[in-house]
Amino acid sequence: MAQAINVNSEIGKLKSVLLHRPGAEVENITPDTMESLLFDDIPFLKIAQKEHDFFAQTLRDNGAETLYIEDLATDVFAKDTAVKDEFLTRFLTEAGYKHGRTFDSLKEYLEGLETKEMVDKIYAGVRKNELDLQRSVLSDLAGSDAANPFYLNPLPNAYFTRDPQASMGAGMTINRMTFAARQPESMITEYIMKHHERFAGTPIWRDRNHTTRIEGGDELILSKNVVAIGVSQRTSSKSIQALAKELFSNPLSTFDTVLAVEIPHNHAMMHLDTVFTMINYDQFTVFPGIFSQDGNINVFVLKQGKDGEVEINRMSDLGKALKQVLNLSELDLIETGDGDPIVAPREQWNDGSNTLAIAPGEIVTYDRNYVSIELLKQHGIKVHEILSSELARGRGGARCMSQPLWRDEI
Ligand SMILES: NC(=[NH2+])NCCC[C@H](N)C(=O)O
């Protein structure tokens, strides 16, 4: 069985990447649902798609195969109706439907679609006016359920393929997402990893069947041995400790160190990769707002201890911790917005730190963050600028919108 995933760094030449093209789900956001759907505005889909296509073409032009998760899901469900049936049953159950009239009608509706159309509908959501269902129970007539125009909510965050899963070495984590708006996304990943022949035999370091949460924006592969994970609004320390234990004990894993980095818990900095990314052997982007007045930050170095336990060493200097775990004598922390008190928060908000390295010292990032871009160039980084006016309204950048499947070794 060929190895499907190989991600042992953040900077190795990007050869294969998982994407999702924004679809109808993005225009199924309303002002009332924007916040619960984790968006800060409603993108204009046509432009968001053009921008995403430009992003994907930039990756292809620089040697990466672009795989779309909706196509992989279609492959799986078109090939095996029993798997499709099981998926729909679990998907509807997780959406809160018990077996009965609505459950049966929804399942029949989705099963009646061509498979690709069904997958698009799973992402887009199912509106109540798509089914002619008699509403005979009170919850259909009054209260929050009645007010919701959807039987199945849209999944507008799906184009941020970084988060519901995380490639790590030769394996993957399939993530228990924090908010209900995104939890269904990783079920699609689960079915692809389980049933798509391309991923047969891929080790799963942690699956989504947990109560403690973790999201891929917090999971950075700093080297073959070191993973950095954010303690953030979206990832709990319990998940990090459990994943570290798995990585240290699983014979298929090469990881022996986890760097847990505690960042502010808020929407703007929801994941570690919104404030910190690795862009070269010894160069990183960093948003200065994650440090205290005296430049400190909570960093915990987790290593294999005695009897399978995890040993934890606390540090307060990110640079020192990175030098220690990566065996670097020097390093270059490049500040978002050149550290300016106005520019830095503005460009961090629009993902100026959320860069995607496609090779050592070569990144893709949103064109709008021109102060950060200028500074990166001054530090010798090759920058590919991508369009961002509509995509950025989802509060994610180039790293958020990509899940590497294969990177060349560095
Ligand atoms: N890796 C990232 N920074 N992902 C950004 C995801 C943005 C998305 N609206 C959310 O709140 O989940």
TrEMBL record:
**One Gene Ontology CC term in the entry:** cytoplasm
- Signal peptide start and end residues: none
Q: In which pathway does it act?
A: Amino-acid degradation; L-arginine degradation via ADI pathway; carbamoyl phosphate from L-arginine: step 1/2
Can you say what this protein is called? Arginine deiminase
Task: Name the predominant localization.
Answer: cytoplasm
Task: Tell me which Gene Ontology terms the entry assigns under biological process.
Answer: L-arginine deiminase pathway
HAMAP family, sorted:
Arg_deiminase
Enzyme Commission code: 3.5.3.6
Q: Which family does it belong to?
A: Belongs to the arginine deiminase family.
Q: Which UniProt keywords apply?
A: Arginine metabolism, Cytoplasm, Hydrolase
